[in-house]
Amino acid sequence: MNPTILFNHYDTFVSEATASLPPIADATHESVHEIFNNYEYPVSSWPVIIDSEISNKLEKMCVRLSALLRKIPACYFKNDVKKIADFYFNGNEMLAQFVLMCHEKEVEIGSRLDLTYTENGFKVLEVNIGTSIGGWQIQSFDALIRSMHSALSSEETSANFTAINTQQKYAEFLIEKIKNYVPGIANEINIIIVGLPKVEKDTKMVSDGLYFFNELIQKELHKRNLTGKVYDADPATLQFTPQGLFLNNIQIHSVLYFSFKDTDEIPPILTRAFITDKIYFPDHIGTAMLGDKRNLGILRTLAEKKTFSEEDNALLLDCIPWAAELKNQEVTFRSQTTNLLELLKTQKDQFVIKPAAGFQGKSVFVGKFLSQDAWEKAIEESLPHAAFIAQEFCESLNFHAPNNENEWTPHKLIWGAFGFGNNYGGVWVRMSSSKTDGGVINSATGAIEAIVYEGK
């Protein structure tokens, strides 16, 4: 049988009873939290079922890569402000100095690895850092997906399939980090969220998530005999004093940016509050440096130089594809030294070009899916702009999944695995028909999302 998204559990899930299931789940179902009734991406009625071996591999990669990324400024740049400024910040040494000040606080933050599952195992395509990482929403469809499959809902078998609750894991992580990094907390924790999307409800504009996040956070606060609230506020309304950061007379203990676009203009008041230990701020100005896609190539280079432990070096060389900054330079690829631009032009099917700080699959060029002329044009147009990387193309295995006609056909998968500090936060999948994916698999470009369970 061809590999399917159900792995070893195909016969358990596929039967006459499930043959008529719609391929896309109904997001308006009563079991789905109301704020996700207008969820913008299609969610598969079918789950992805993995085993503990796959889950353990994902956990190891999430935890170790996050920790090793934080070593790049010291291990690769020797904490040289000018080198860091030139590489990440267009020569802005003042910004680089502030970034290093934030980075040196060694504050644990959340991350999401985007991976493809190849014939040689998982390969990490990029690391997304900070609060704005998506994918955690899929957990709100758990009850609905379970209700559609007897193996997930019956008393006899439901316990055999578990899914890590990413939302709960993040809430637990957030509260613990606030308690660790902000001294003097008594019995109350208050949080500001910036960048929540807005929707029209009951003829008035409300935050499409503030109520949800309050529910989530307050549940975890209650477990710890704490009180507090989540606020949606403009950072310009905050006041900073020697006693802390305040919204009116309410002390704020953490600020979260749910929109990556807003992090380009972080007000100085938040940096001051963070540096003086008044708030836990996972989206500080050093966060962008950790999320730069060129860092994967740097980690691979450091592993080749045996910078880390033998185990970490082996992990990095195994899971990180070859990559290099896109510029006119000599590189060594598969033991052959040549000019990078010539290499790309002569072996286009082997490479992908992407921006170092891109989001949602934008400006990503996959050589295998472009004509020679279009590929060379992509190279020429990318060179003069913000930093781009050339990355070895790692093709996903085909996994059969239902298409829009409910036929089981080959799909390509991108796995989004979450890490919160030293804690694994689960995984979610985006999948696209092999006939239509075009090499870029992203929710924003039409992929279908799927919830992942670990089966016994």
From TrEMBL:
This is Circularly permuted type 2 ATP-grasp protein. The lineage of its organism: Bacteria, Pseudomonadati, Bacteroidota, Flavobacteriia, Flavobacteriales.
